[in-house]
Predict the structure.
Amino acid sequence: MVNGDSAEIVVPATIDAIEQVAMYLEEFLEKTEVPMMEATRIQLAVEEAVTNVVMHGYDDSGGDVLIRLESSPAQIAITIIDAGAAFDPTTIPPPDVTADLDHRKIGGLGVHLIRSVMDEVRYARERDQNKLTLIKNITSG
Amino acid sequence: MSELLEVTTRTIEGVAIVDVSGRMDAATSRDVEVALTTLIDGGSRKIVFNGKNLTYISSSGLRVVLASLKRLRQDGGEMALAALQPAPLEVIRMTGFDRIFTIFDTPELAISSISC
């Protein structure tokens, strides 16, 4: 694994930017030799987090979202920063994933997936910005 | 249509098969939504979602398949999932969607089950 690699990208908070982020992240994760299944889990968490910014972060005037990627031998850290409305996903209650079809709600599933696939999720509101940090520990082999 | 996702439909023994290849994410899931809505609006009541070449699904993709299943069951129809790869299957299980959908190892098994 490449040590101490980092990269960042700024995209408009739009649905179409999701694919741009996905391709950028895929390239980074390939370079850092993250196992494919773990790479897919990281892709999932980042997409869910960026989608939340796109859907709920900004009003009609729009805005940007920054995604910073950092790798070390032991972990991948992704920081997602936006200047939209304050939103702390760590406070969202878990959805009822045992509900039947009639009572099934789709809301909250994205945050649930982020929590399920990442080892650590941290949120801070700093200088009128949301700063969400996602950590994935990597076990080699 | 996105370069990252391909969706095609075909019919076998009265069952509509939706073959989805690539990524079902917040941007691409719209294409699958259009395909499923077109089938249901056109009268299809039995649908198999073939995930043999689906490499990735997020909550946006789950939203699409859940909405279609709700519509179908309201009309006495059914949708089954088939041939899911490990990553999408993990997402389905983490969200409890394996309690809602019937999942088959192959599209052929799904077709024979829901065509009855």
Q: What stands out?
A: Chain A has one domain: 6-137. The longest helix of chain A spans residues 36-57. The domain at 6-137 of chain A is CATH 3.30.565.10 (Heat Shock Protein 90).
